[in-house]
Structures are given as C-alpha cells and as structure tokens.
Amino acid sequence: MSRRKLPIALAGLVAVAALALSGCTADDSLADQYREGSGKGYIAGDGSVTEIAAADRGESVEFEGTLEDGSTVSSADYEGEVLVVNFWYAGCAPCRAEAPDLKTISEEFAGEGASFLGVNVRDQAASAIAFNESYSISYPSVMDVDDGAMQLAFSGNIPPNAVPTTLVLDTSGRVAARILGQVNSPSILKTLIADAIAEDG
After folding, report:
1. All structural domains of the chain
2. 3-class secondary-structure state, position 55
3. Sign of the CA dihedral 41, 29, 145, 120?
4. Where does the record locate the signal sequence feature (predicted)?
5. Who is most buried in 14, 55, 104, 184, counting CB within 10 A?
C-alpha cells in the first residue's frame, strides 16, 4: 500500500507546530491556549513581569524595520536611551485594552530618557495607522507581518511568547524586563522604565 505524501507547505506547517509544542510542558498555559483552538486570534499572557539583573542580560538587540509611514527605523536610532518595545496588532483585545495606558506612559516619559516603539505582528500599515489615530498614539510601529524580522531579532533574548508583550530595553539595548500579556498595572511599567533610566545615572 502506498503512502500519500503531505503537500510541502502543509508538511512544513506540521513540522513547525510540532517543534513549537515540543518544548512545552503539560502545564504551559500558553501552549494550552494554543491547543484549545478557541479561535480568539491571539494567545494571552497573564501579565507576569520578568526582570533581569544587569549582570545577567544578554547582548544588545540589533534591529531594523519599516514603520507604518514607510520610513525605516533601527536600534541605532535609540542608542543611549531606554526603549519600550510593545508587540501588538489591532484585532487583539488585550492590545486595545492596554493602548490608553501605553499612550499615557509614553507621553509621560517623552524627553525623559525613554522612547516607545510598537511592533505590529499581523496588520498592514493602514490598519496600524487607523488604530493609532483611534487611540491617539503618537509613537511609531514597525510593520513586522511580512518578514517577522523584529520578532526574530528579539527571539534570542526573551521571545515575545504572547501578544501583547512589552519589553523594556536598557540604555545599552539589552532586554531588562518583560511584561508577558496585557499591561495590567501602569505603575509597574512606569517603575520598570524609571529603574532602567536610573541605572545609567
């Protein structure tokens, strides 16, 4: 009896899914959400915060991407300042819920040693622009849906396992903290940013 071969694209997808799940333990809540197939379109983190001591941080993260307005941005543009990187997309309910807080915090730290940069993992530019207009968000976002270069750039340090995920990079461009899931407590994010700024002082 001959065995039917999977189409190449489908075989690749199966292999990727198997690889992604192979490292998950039975009590991995993110993997459980993936497996349940709820169709909600995102895997939600629990808002847990991970801080990394300066001595334990990895290498500086180098990246380059195209913003929603077509211009380019790179890690060199933020050299010497704290950078808050938020992974999001417009259809993600927790992303919408945290948007007003991110807007407020980004404005609070503008000119105070910290900048914000979004990374849109799913939308095209028009959707990102409409989202920013709706929530009056002024900081830019990299459109990462086509090549995933931004997600890849951060994967060797602390991978954004859920959307949204917010990373705080120190003034050397190293990941200092991560909030996995929605920013539930603006005061915690503000403290993480302030602490990263203070390290350089």
Report:
1. 7-39 (no CATH), 42-199 (3.40.30.10)
2. helix
3. positive
4. 1-20
5. 184
